[in-house]
Design goal:
Its cofactor is Co(2+); NAD(+). The chain is of the alpha/beta class. The chain has two domains: about 5-160, Rossmann fold; about 165-190 and about 225-350, Dehydroquinate synthase-like - alpha domain (Dehydroquinate synthase-like, alpha domain, Up-down Bundle). It has helices at about 10-20, 35-40, 65-80, 95-105, 120-125, 165-180, 185-190, 200-220, 235-245, 255-270, 275-290, 300-305, 335-350, and strands spanning about 5-10, 30-35, 55-60, 85-90, 110-115, 130-135, 140-145, 150-155, 320-325, 330-335. Strand 9 and strand 10 form a beta hairpin. The protein binds nicotinamide-adenine-dinucleotide, ligand LNCXM5UN and zinc ion. Ligand LNCXM5UN binds near residues 223 and 231. Nicotinamide-adenine-dinucleotide binds near residues 35, 131, 140 and 161.
Length: about 350
């Protein structure tokens, strides 16, 4: 696959202007959510190509990453003269880049899209790599496509208005990227003080983190093999997230991933010999900053059932991505149901719930 077109911006407006000048399209549409409309779109007000462009806005929150909102966006595009040569500029977090990407993939069988990520989650992960989609039937990203944007323009100055919970949410994916990389990155990630955020350092870490994803996606864009590394923490994490939606107490994606990492590193320790010392360090770090995800034994069967829908599964077997060491990824690992339930216990004991 061609290299992902990811630009770490020094001057977002002029770099977006230049990029848009370099591509051919007939009409540009902007997609935002209700928060990014107010907080982020004004940071693009000098870009000439955006003057007079229709802005489509959906209500913020991952529960809106659904087919009803997709239909509403398709409708606006349809009624406002979008053609196959139109371009959709997604300005927002992962909710917007996932859903906008999916709309772009499907409208008239595919129009151009460009992502301007505005959260940490979208900057290091969601906006890059071409996985697009929506939640469906209570399951995360159940409907979607691989459809890379033409370009991703990352500018960390958006992060200044991001609240702490969403900063933590994105940081969980950076912890994941570090765990699948090497000890040096891992140590740097676990030394970062999330109580006193050094934004200059965070900017550098964003560039390094997204580079981890870019390298893997270039090698395996459609998740036939090594891209499954990027799903570390998500087999259990998505089950925790879906359960939280079902209970009407939604947790942020990255918070569920952080909890999923704890459970899956436990499985890594049990099945692949991942060092207990590192597992303890990760638990200590995550426990220090992340709120606990509350569930009890009565939820175990529901969580296990949710995991039977994971996209890495084959022939009814739940496939995990595990680690034998930091940077040593073991894909397609099956684990007994007993051990999976034990990994829920491990999370609850570690977080004292
Ligand atoms: N496609 C992928 O590879 C991939 C990777 C990771 C996550 N995801 C998906 O991404 C979604 C989560 O993304 P997210 O964490 O960015 O959530 P999000 O897009 O819902 O944004 C979180 C909140 O922050 C607000 N916000 C956005 N930018 C802001 C800013 N600059 N200042 C203040 N507030 C701002 C949003 O309005 C929203 O309320 C999930 O659906 C997840 O499944 C996809
Ligand atoms: O890009 C990938 O590949 C990932 O798995 C990144 C994940 O952080 C992301 O949450 C992704 O959307 C999960 O995909 P899914 O296939 O498990 O739905
Ligand atoms: Zn994720």
């Amino acid at each position: 696959m061609a290299a992902q077109n990811v630009i770490i911006c020094k001057n977002l407006q002029s770099e977006l202007q230049n990029f848009l000048q370099s591509v051919k399209y007939d009409k540009l549409f902007v997609l935002t959510d209700s928060n990014t409309l107010e907080l982020c779109l004004p940071m693009l007000k000098e870009v000439p190509q955006l003057q007079g462009a229709p802005v489509i806005t959906v209500e913020a929150g991952d529960t809106n990453k659904n087919i009803e909102q997709v239909t509403a966006i398709w409708m606006r595009l349809c009624n406002e003269g979008a053609s196959r040569n139109s371009l959709l500029l997604n300005v927002g977090g992962g909710m917007i880049t996932d859903m906008g990407g999916f709309v772009a993939a499907t409208f008239k069988r595919g129009i151009h899209s460009v992502n301007v990520p505005t959260t940490l989650m979208a900057s290091v992960d969601a906006a890059v790599g071409g996985k697009t989609g929506i939640n469906f039937n209570g399951l995360k990203n159940e409907i979607g496509s691989f459809y890379p944007p033409l370009c991703v323009l990352i500018d960390s100055s958006f992060l200044k208005t991001l609240d702490r919970d969403n900063l933590l949410s994105g940081y969980a994916e950076m912890v994941k990227h570090a765990l699948i990389s090497n000890m040096e990155t891992y140590r740097a990630i676990l030394s970062f003080d999330l109580d006193r955020v050094d934004y200059t350092l965070l900017n550098q870490m964003v560039a390094q983190s997204v580079a981890v994803k870019e390298r893997i996606v270039e090698e395996d864009p459609k998740e036939m093999g090594i891209r499954k590394a990027l799903n570390l923490g998500h087999t259990v994490g998505h089950a925790y997230e879906s359960l939280s939606f079902r209970k009407g107490r939604p947790v942020l994606h990255g918070h569920a991933v952080a909890a999923g990492l704890v459970s899956e590193l436990y499985l890594s320790y049990k099945k692949c010999g991942f060092p207990m010392e590192i597992l303890s360090q990760v638990v200590y770090y995550l426990k220090k900053y992340y709120p606990p995800f509350f569930f009890n034994c009565d939820d175990y069967e529901a969580l296990y059932e949710l995991m039977t829908h994971d996209k890495k599964n084959e022939g009814g077997i739940i496939n995990f991505t595990l680690l034998s060491q930091v940077g040593e990824v073991q894909i397609n690992q099956s684990v007994t149901k007993e051990k999976v339930l034990e990994s829920f216990d491990f999370y609850r004991e570690s977080f004292g719930i």
